[in-house]
Design goal:
seven-stranded mixed β-sheet, Alpha-D-Glucose-1,6-Bisphosphate, Chain A, domain 3, 4 domains, alpha/beta, 569 residues, globular, 24 strands
Length: 569
């Protein structure tokens, strides 16, 4: 471990402002444990870029850590594009300090002679991804910590294709950042290189979103929607997108419509959690709405609740919405004729059910590591193929390739199209989902996340992964494990034959067990939060829709038994 006191004292020099120096001196004098947490390491790029708690220190988000990253990225861009006039675009979300941190990032880029397009106000992450290509930029940055608690912020880097950075750029950029010292950062701006942007890019993005997500579904005037932005950025785009697509009955949760980094009405602005949508769900019951949609602070994830068979609002999980959205897109393509070059995509910890869907429609199917940057990379790697859509279990979906990251704006419109059309035909979003289970197999998934904070937490997570690898699981709910996929060693081991194959995707600290009956358990440390995550998937046949509730309870019980068996409850 680094010498924390020496590292911290480096912040007592004139390179840092008086406030930073005062904070560090106070920690040295009075709070060694907090000093350790702030300086024991540098913030690192994970699956979603750099994300952390705001404050002074090398392990915190502040003007210096972001300035260092931006200086390193500037140096790298100059190296890769030595003879081009470099351009970047920057967006930011509702979080505390996002606007001032975005301004700092813009100033550092400009001080390095790079043209900066800076959104004048908060905007969604999908619009930032769109803007990179729309403005023909070399890179993009968004200041956001997604659905993390209020004390967090983050810095996500996008490349020329509009997708987040992937190999080899990520390692090369990290290398460039690591060569930068804090006194190398150029903070003095060249203001003539910073251009504020807003309406022109907004209009282009909204038009593209409607063009990609609107399929002229029937019944829009009778389809009631409750929408909440959970104090985040989607308020800048989703209401207008729905309006232009023809939705008239949209009720916005006004007490959550004002952007606010404190997220005062929710414990967590995470649409994966039913509690986050509590106010919206209550309003839906009051007005008899058909669908509730809520989005996270930067509007890349969405949670959808629809009426179940009993007429009650039920929050669907990311696998369920991904399945129905993908099927709907394939149905629309089928109407005009599938050409044979289409493909859909998902991630290795998402439902295996999507592969069966691809087989049924005769389209290609690809899986990637967790994170939409890998799906965006597929689009770049296979230009001869046509990406239809895809998603991951963590409530993200991408419609076509005009945005190269998960996009809650267009996905919200797509969900409304599915629900509206189903209702007009006498069905529902929920009933259509059950029909999928009858046609492609009944899959149920569950995620367990264990939070382990700080240095000790990081060590505990590391040890848990080691234990699973060194003491492999032999059975899950009585079903024998027949395959272990270790993405850290790129090996897929068939325990029945003893054969070991190479996994042809980048290495990642993920371990997946598969049993004889198709049960699957995956374990991975989060790349953006102090958590270790366990993903469970079980399945069986569903002979007819009438058996849905009975068979569903059986699958739920199976997952519960496995969780108890692994002592994760």
């Amino acid at each position: 471990m680094r010498d924390i006191i020496t590292t911290a004292k480096g912040w007592l020099t004139d390179t840092f402002d008086s406030n930073a120096q005062e904070v560090v001196q106070r920690l040295i004098d009075n709070d060694p444990e907090e000093l350790k947490e702030r300086f024991y390491k540098d913030l690192e790029f994970g699956t979603g870029g750099m994300r952390g708690i705001m404050g002074i220190g090398t392990n915190r988000i502040n003007k210096y850590t972001l300035g260092k990253s931006t200086q390193g990225l500037s140096n790298y861009l100059k190296k890769v594009y030595p003879d081009e006039r470099l351009k970047v675009v920057i967006a930011y979300d509702c979080r505390h300090n996002s606007d001032t941190l975005a301004q700092t990032v813009a100033e550092v880029f400009s001080a390095n002679g790079i043209k900066v397009y800076l959104f004048s106000e908060l905007r969604t992450t999908p619009e930032l991804s769109f803007a990179v290509r729309h403005l023909k930029c070399h890179a993009g940055v968004v200041l956001t910590a997604s659905h993390n608690p209020p004390e967090y912020n983050g810095y996500k880097v996008y490349w020329t294709d509009g997708g987040q950075i992937v190999p080899p750029q990520d390692a090369e950029i990290i290398g460039a950042i690591n060569t930068v010292s804090f006194d190398d950062i150029k903070f003095t701006p060249e203001n003539s290189l910073i251009q504020k942007i807003d309406r022109d890019v907004d209009e282009a993005f909204i038009e593209a979103s409607v063009r990609n997500g609107n399929f002229d579904a029937d019944g829009k005037s009778n389809f009631k929607i409750v929408f909440t932005s959970l104090h985040g950025t989607s308020i800048t785009a989703i209401p207008e997108v729905l309006k232009r697509a023809g939705y008239e009955n949209v009720t916005i949760i006004e007490e959550q419509a004002t952007p606010d980094g404190s997220f005062p009405t929710v414990d967590s602005p995470n649409p994966e959690e039913p509690e986050a949508l509590e106010i919206a769900l209550k309003k839906a019951e009051e007005i008899g709405a058909d669908m509730v949609v809520g989005t996270d602070p930067d509007s890349d994830r969405l949670g959808i609740a629809v009426r179940n068979l009993e007429g009650d609002m039920e929050l669907l999980n990311g696998n369920q919405t991904m399945l129905l959205m993908t099927k709907y897109l394939l149905d629309q393509r089928k109407k005009t004729g599938l050409k044979g070059d289409e493909f859909i995509a998902t991630t290795i910890v998402s439902t295996p059910m999507l592969e069966g869907l691809a087989e049924a429609y005769g389209v290609g199917f690809k899986t990637a590591l967790t994170g939409f940057k890998w799906i965006a990379k597929m689009i770049e790697d296979y230009p001869e193929e046509d990406f239809v859509g895809g998603g991951e279990e963590s409530f993200g979906f991408m419609v076509g390739d005009f945005v190269r990251d998960k996009d809650a704006v267009t996905s919200t419109l797509l969900a409304c199209e599915i629900g509206s059309e189903a209702k007009a035909k006498g069905s529902s979003f929920y009933k259509d989902l059950i029909d999928c289970y009858v046609d492609y197999g009944f899959y149920k998934e569950k995620l367990i996340s264990l939070t382990k904070k700080g240095i000790s937490g990081a060590e505990e997570i590391k040890q848990m992964m080691v234990d699973f690898k060194e003491n492999p699981i032999e059975t899950l709910d009585g079903s024998k494990v027949i395959r272990i996929d270790d993405y850290n060693t790129s090996t897929s081991s068939d325990l029945t034959t003893g054969e070991v194959e190479t996994i042809d995707i980048p290495k990642s600290n993920v371990l997946i067990y598969t049993t004889e009956d198709g049960t699957r358990m995956a374990a991975r440390p989060s790349g953006t939060e102090p958590k270790i995550k366990f993903y469970f998937s079980v399945n069986t046949d569903l002979q007819n829709a009438d058996d849905f509730k009975k068979v569903g309870r059986e699958l739920d019980d199976k997952i519960t038994r496995i969780i108890e068996e692994l002592k994760l409850s």
